Each structure stands twice: as structure tokens, then as C-alpha cells.
Amino acid sequence: MNVPEELRYTQEHEWVKLDGNIATVGITDFAQSELGDIVYLEIDTLGAEINSNDVFGTVEAVKTVSDLFMPVNGKVIDVNPSLEDNPEVVNDDPYGEGWIIKVEVSNPSDIDNLMSYEEYKNLIGS
């Protein structure tokens, strides 16, 4: 299971990469493998201020539909445009081209509340 060391993680299997006060958010390799083939993502929160742990969208796979949870407080400033026509890129490259949203983080220190690489690996038993 691929778990990049430089990212932070949530209990709900989202990953976060912080660059200044902009966070890129996606789902982990573990999450995409558990979901199976992803067929659709619904993100209708562009421009919205969302609190940590609130739902910012859903991901639909062949097997199920799952909520996507905001890892930090902030405003959704971008949604990955390539996912509309190619949602399967989340399966193929969850930490790269498969990113889901970008967030202007209200308080960058919120990232300190997320799990480290080691903590996430322990969560998924990897």
C-alpha cells in the first residue's frame, strides 16, 4: 500500500498536502482500493467555507457511494477538472493527478491535528 511520508492523513482516509495556506486534498491509495473502480465524484462545494470533518462531496464506485470529509477548516478554491471526465484517475494516481480539491486553509496549524505517515500506516495495518 502506497503511503507517502510527506503527507498528512485523516481517519476517513483523506490525504492532505499543505503548500503555504493552500491544501491539496485527495483520498488515499487504501481508500481507492477499498472502494474499487471509481465511476463518479460529486463535489458541489466550490467556493464554500467548510469545517473540518464536514462532508465536502461524495465518491461513487461500482460497489458503493462514500462521503468525502474535509480534513481542515477552509474554503474550497478548486476542484480537479479532469475528474469529471476521468474519475478513474483517482484509482490510477490517488496522490498525483487524482487529487480532488484545493482548499484555502483558515489556520495552517490545523494540519498538526492530522495523522502522520506512521500513524496512518498503523491505522490501515500496513
What can you see in these coordinates?
The protein is an alpha+beta fold. It has one domain: OB fold (Dihydrolipoamide Acetyltransferase, E2P). It contains four helices and nine strands, in the order βββαβββββααβα. The termini are close together.
What layout of secondary structure does this protein have?
Elements: E1 8-9, E2 14-19, E3 22-27, H1 29-35, E4 38-42, E5 49-50, E6 55-61, E7 65-69, E8 74-79, H2 82-85, H3 89-92, E9 101-105, H4 117-124
Antiparallel strand pairs: 1-2, 2-3, 3-9, 4-6, 5-8, 6-7, 8-9
- Numbering strands along the chain, what is their spatial order in the largest sheet? 1-2-3-9-8-5
Fraction of residues in H or I helices: 10-25%
Can you identify the CATH class? Answer: Mainly Beta
CATH superfamily: RNA polymerase II/Efflux pump adaptor protein, barrel-sandwich hybrid domain
Number of domains: 1
Portion of residues in beta strands equals 25-35%
Tally of DSSP helical segments:
4
Summarize the model shown.
This protein has 126 residues and is α+β, with helices and mostly antiparallel strands. It has one domain (8-107): RNA polymerase II/Efflux pump adaptor protein, barrel-sandwich hybrid domain (OB fold (Dihydrolipoamide Acetyltransferase, E2P), Beta Barrel).
